[in-house]
Amino acid sequence: MKSTTDFLEMKRQRKKIVMLTAYDYPSAKQAELADVDMILVGDSLGNVVLGYDSTIYVTMEDMIHHAKAAKRGASNTFLVVDMPFMSYHLSVRDTLLNGARLIQETGAQAVKVEGADGVLLHIEALVKAGIPVVAHLGLTPQSVGVLGGFKVQGKDVESARKLLEDAKRCQEAGAFAIVLECVPKQLAEEISSSVTIPTIGIGAGVHTDGQVLVYHDVLTYGVERVSKFVKPYAAINKQIVDGIQTYVKEVRSELFPDDQHSFTMNDEQLKTLYG
Ligand code: KIV
Ligand code: NA
Questions:
Q1: At which positions is Mg(2+) bound (predicted)?
Q2: Out of 158, 172, 181, 224, which one is annotated catalytic?
Q3: I want to staple 110 with a disulfide (CB 3.0 to 4.6 A). Which of 132, 190, 212, 239 is the partner?
Q4: Which atom of ligand 1 is nearest to the CA of 42?
């Protein structure tokens, strides 16, 4: 399994870090088989697995439940777990207790937190306590209400400067990587060359040190619409619905189960049973 220092080394050697989300045993197993460098049990599970319209409804219990399953599917891959809404804001003590639970109860290697303002002290405390932290800047879905929608971040000079400063502050606080979500590619490039820790982009162009996408988006699995930054590499939703439809039809027309999928008794047994 790779380690936090391996990811720093990958940045130095300009080797791209590939991250994918996974939320359960099969998806994590598939990600590990496909040789991703890092798996993220994202709180995007609220959207793509639980059907909420926001990540703010996701609880610590949800994250732990899914991360445990993912770890069982990918025991040899570096696993990052999102700290859910409000689990790293109330106090350093709360943050440490929640961070510890996410690591200890799931076997994950690191946690991820959104934002910098008001969170830096908590990043520092987590790292000091021995919990590796991934920062997440730009479009931070847990604060979409404050941001005013799912919009590209850092498009004007002021907010671009703020993002660059925040990235440096996250590095100083001890984060070992930064997810950059929905920022112009030029800004993502500037940020990536201004910090020594790897940046992992989603909707942030090709110049970040790595990329992350959501499992369900990559495979077009249960999602109707995907963002501009998503490239669907497979379309399994159609295969799944087609498969289920054929099953439904065959049951209704008694094509299924045929003899090949049934158990039978021989004549002797039948005679003994019914005389
Ligand atoms: O929850 C998630 O899937 C994420 C990624 C989009 C970075 O935070
Ligand atoms: Na997330």
A1: 43, 82, 114
A2: 181
A3: 132
A4: 1
Query: Residue whose CA is closest, atom 5 of ligand 1?
Result: 42
Pocket perturbation via mutation, ligand 1, pick of 81, 181, 200, 227 by most ligand atoms within 8 A of CB: 181
> Whose atoms come closest to the Cα of 211: which ligand?
1
- pLDDT at 275 exceeding the cut of 80: no
What pLDDT, in 10s, does the model give residues 224-240? 888 999 999 999 999 99
Q: How far is the CA of 181 from the centre of ligand 1 (A)?
A: 9
* Cβ–Cβ under 8 Å, residues 175 and 202: no
Report whether 68 belongs to an annotated binding site.
Answer: no
* Ligand showing the shortest atom-to-Cα distance for residue 39: 1
Mean pLDDT of the region 248-256: 98
The answer to whether residues 211 and 248 belong to one domain is no
The CATH number of residue 225's host domain is 3.20.20.60
- Is residue 69 domain-shared with residue 134, that is, in the same domain? yes
Pocket, ligand 1, Cβ cutoff 6 A: 21, 40, 42-44, 82, 136, 179, 181, 202, 212, 214
pLDDT of residue 225: 82
Looking at the predicted complex, does its ipTM rise above 0.95?
Answer: yes
166 and 200 assigned to the same domain: yes
Same domain, 181 and 150: yes
Q: Do 101 and 206 share a domain, yes or no?
A: yes
Answer whether 234's CB lies under 8 Å from 220's CB: yes
**Quick one: CA dihedral 137, 153, 142, 222, positive or negative?**
negative
What is the residue whose two structure tokens read 């090949």? 260
CA distance 72 to 94: 27
Among candidate residues 245, 226, 244, 248, the one with its CA nearest the CA of residue 235: 226
pTM of the model: 0.96
What number of residues does the chain have?
275
